[in-house]
Amino acid sequence: MTADGLVVIAALLVWGTVAGLDLVSVPQAMLARPIVAATVAGWLLGDIEAGLRVGAVLELFALDVLPVGAVRYPDYGPGAVAATAVSAHAPWELSLGVATGLGLVVATVGGWSLRWLRHRNARTTQRRAAALRAGDAGAIHRIQYICMVRDAARALVLTAAGLAVAWLLDGRLRLDRDTAAALTLAAIGAGAASALGGAIRGAGTGARLRWLAVGGAAGLGLATLAWSIG
Amino acid sequence: MTGRFRALLRLLAVQGSWNYERMQGVGMGYAAEPLLEDLKTADPLRHTEAVVRSAEFFNANPYLAGLALGASVRAEYDGVAGEQVARLRTALSGPLGALGDGLFWAGLVPATLGAALAAIALGAGWVAVVAFLLVFNVCRLAVTAWGLRTGLATGMRVGSAITASALPRTATRVAGVAAFAVGLAVPLVAGWLLRPFGSRGVAAAAVLALIGLLLARWFGARFTASRFGLLALGATLFLHWVIA
Predict the structure, then answer these.
(1) Of B77, B75, B61, B72, whose CA–CA distance to B14 is shortest?
(2) Dihedral angle at the C-alpha atoms of A152, A154, A160, A164, nearest 10 degrees?
(3) Is the bond leading into A27 cis (omega within 30 degrees of zero)?
(4) DSSP A89
(5) 8-state DSSP, B64
């Protein structure tokens, strides 16, 4: 592997860690959104278009998720980074399905790792309960820093595992054209269903549902127009 | 750097130690510390008690946590009884959670993301991603800073300040914009990605999307997007393997 290749891998690991940390811990600036995480990963890999496409499909899945309170949700940031690594510099019509699959698997594992993280954080807090009861500001600092470092380590391991699988898929997975294209179609169809399903569920039956229908009709009209032109 | 600005920066990490026991409690204590510093010299005992209370259980939308932080710190300086300060934090948890989740997670996030996805599908490229990040974070930081300022200014009267603010009305309006933006984005993104596959590809993806919508309706929230995605990809792979 060249020095440039190692620099790209290191940059992807750092970016995946930042995206994973952004989801819950800090700074919650939407860097963990798949469209952001994948686009930046695509830029780092020298194929920003691949990042945009992978990010758009994974974002359709992520739109279904409301990350509120103690609810369990996938961690799409590191997953989007790994998925982009699969699709970069490959014909996207044939790689998008496999990339989406890897992105979803890593995101799901990321969701499980968040549960582990929260239990570990609770134990860290319990161990310093006496100091907290005594009003020790230093204990608050220590808990905060330990938990954030732990989350960064979690995101780093998740990104590294995702990139390792992406590298294995790149070298070992051999799919015929029809199967690869069918997987891409399945990813797009499932993503559209997920985004719409989530939007319908969240819209209820009132004005929001009407706005969703108006938006859908406008989008359909614009998409048809874009097809007829392009 | 002023205590207020340090508290604002620390509010960005209010969920840094999120856990099932105190939830955002320790993060709130971490953000409260710079604001409570003046109390250390004025009334050391009260300061210690305030630090203890600041790190107790708390859970709300992280972007509106500044309202509760500011209000409870102001109450500590005003010499309000400790039990009342604790009750204020508890009382604010639910409303700030519901209001913030409606404003951000069901409003601003899908509205700006839907707009960004639609723009990407229409050829805007990475510029749409940068625009999304800028718009969201400017709004988010403005709301967080306003929350901290309002909480510090109103103390125990923060509830009235929230009710009188534009937040509840904005949350209702932005929810409609979000529904429109997501409705607009989904067909545009699907059309953009399906173009090389022709009408047969569109038909296949549409059938799958319809099946997904029916399953989502049948199973409700248990039928998560990632589960359906993996199921659809696995079933496609299996069918191709059987046919081959």
Answers:
(1) B61
(2) -170
(3) yes
(4) T
(5) G
The answer to whether A33 touches A81, Cβ cutoff 8 Å, is: no
Pairwise CA distance, residues B51 & B36, whole Å: 8
Closest of B35, B107, B94 to residue B59, by C-alpha: B94
Q: Which two tokens stand for residue B67?
A: 């309202």
Q: Which of A13, A65, A3 is nearest to A40 (CA)?
A: A13
For residue A116, count other CB atoms closer than 10 A to its CB: 11
> What one-letter code names the amino acid at A23?
L
- C-alpha–C-alpha distance, residues B11 and B30, integer Å: 8
Per the CB < 8 A criterion, the answer to whether B151 and B35 are in contact is no
Cα separation of B213 and B220, whole Å? Answer: 10
What pLDDT is recorded for position B243?
84
B233 neighbors A186 (Cβ within 8 angstroms): yes
Q: What is the pTM of this model?
A: 0.96
Asked if B16 and A148 count as a contact pair (C-beta separation under 8 A), the reply is yes
What confidence tens digit (pLDDT) does each residue in A59-116 have?
A: 999 998 877 666 789 999 999 999 999 999 999 999 999 999 999 999 999 999 999 9
The interface residues of chain B toward chain A in range 80-99, judged by CB-CB distance below 8 A, are: 97
Mutate to test the interface with B, among A48, A60, A148, A178 (most CBs of B within 10 A): A60
Amino acid found at B196 = P
Q: How far apart are CA B114 and CA A191, in angstroms?
A: 14
User: Which residue of B108, B129, B173 to mutate against A (max A Cβ within 10 Å)?
Assistant: B129
Q: How far apart are CA B224 and CA A66, in angstroms?
A: 11
A6 has pLDDT over 90: yes
Q: What is the mean pLDDT of chain A?
A: 95
Q: Please check whether residue A73 is in contact with residue B221, taking contact to mean a CB–CB distance below 8 angstroms.
A: no
Chain B residues in contact with A201 by the CB 8 A cut-off are 216, 220-221
